[in-house]
């Protein structure tokens, strides 16, 4: 079975330990027949045998030996159980540790498409609950199954030695028990797959709610969100109860069968004792060991339930384990080059799944040039710039950097040459200094400050209680939108990339600050090609060239003056903004 093969593969390093633990379980469980055997000897020799009273005086040493043997084997079994549990724990914890690292790396290395199709809550469930379920199964469920089967087999073998007929009478119950268990397992399996899905929905709702708590509060939608969460919680709880209740449909039958072991033993065993076919001691051994047959039957429901959970979780983990990103880093480059920064789009088309978002786009940006991209919302600006660092791959055409198709460049090297400040700013829960130096943790403090100044962030950082050491909350909580944008800009500039991509990075800053940032960008100490997505004419006016996107196509291209002269989309935006804010940007781009 594929899943078991996967488990075996991932036990590498702990296989010997795990197999040893299984062997100890088998040995320890086999020993369960020893004490009933000793008990049988004691009963036959010292309690119910013909010479019992005589033996009590003559064979006292044997009696003491048998009693000590009983104690000794009980201790041995306890010791083996202790030791094997330790080995199971170690092997399963080690495996969990390795798989967790592997999955984390796997998730880290996935491309954007993967993140588009996988919910954060679901990925979190896989990394926590599912992994732990697999570990629990390796340490407990498989152990329980092995031990139950061994006790069952040892008891059957022992019974056969005592009396074949009586054993066969008892075993008559096994086929119906297995049939009932099989029907139960088939019925409950889809329920656990569904349960796992509901858990993932519950976690996704929780994660979204916590992350989006500000929006919830802003719209005073707490009641609604609580109701939404309640609904998911009720769904999960209902599915959980339904799965648990199914067991109750089968439980009475299995319990009756389990009890029937005792009834058959009493009737048939009693008859055989009376006939003198088996001794009292043998009967007592049967009575003691009968739980070895009936107990696994009683527990079969719990084991099947746990196994279904185990396989549902394992399936989810294996999905991540074998997920292959479409865009991979081959780690071929030994020395990372610094690019010149020439970018070329050659008849590029792009789609998300089946929806075409960019259609036949061609343009070139020379090293050091600044190009601005403008267009209505949803026109494809972000999608276009996402193709340069290969966050996505083109559907048709080519994107070239320094004359080479980006698909042929080493991903590390390519991305290391590009500084990106994304539209949706994400800062880490770290100090401001740590966030600014994210691309180069070794960056000297003076440099961090220099880039903060260039991004017009230094002044507000200085005024914060602990300056650059102030810790910002998750996703930058505690900072204004414009402040976050400036830190994101500083972070992108700080790696001094030959290509700088700014996606609407100054939309939330005031015009004066924006002017400061533009001056910084113009006067960068390192050569840098800049691609700036902006909606404000004040930002685009000084670019070497402006592209206007509409519905995935370039509808206008030229300098500020050329586009104004065209009297198209750009001119309309220019007029609207100048009239709206009473600010003059002249035809040659001067304010
Ligand atoms: N991850 C995605 N999966 C599917 N479709 C997407 C995805 N991201 C964007 N789109 C769609 O692609 C189109 C272009 O989106 P894009 O974000 O590139 O526009 P934009 O011009 O940057 O918009 P804005 O100015 O609002 O940021 C939109 O119709 C959008 O709905």
TrEMBL record:
Keywords: ATP-binding, Cell membrane, Membrane, Nucleotide-binding, Transmembrane, Transmembrane helix, Transport
Matches recorded under PROSITE patterns: ABC_TM1F, ABC_TRANSPORTER_1, ABC_TRANSPORTER_2
Membrane-spanning intervals of the chain: 18-38, 61-88, 140-161, 167-185, 250-274
Domain named ABC transmembrane type-1: residues: 19-309
A single GO cellular-component term on record: plasma membrane
Stored SMART domains: AAA
Domain of life: Bacteria
The keyword Transport belongs to this UniProt entry's keyword annotation: yes
Topology relative to the membrane: Multi-pass membrane protein
One term of GO molecular function: ABC-type oligopeptide transporter activity
UniProt-annotated location(s): Cell membrane
Main location: membrane
Domain ABC transporter: 343-576
Family annotation (Pfam families): ABC_membrane (PF00664), ABC_tran (PF00005)
Family matches, as PANTHER family: ATP-BINDING CASSETTE SUB-FAMILY B MEMBER 10, MITOCHONDRIAL, ATP-DEPENDENT PERMEASE MDL1, MITOCHONDRIAL
Protein name: ABC transporter ATP-binding protein
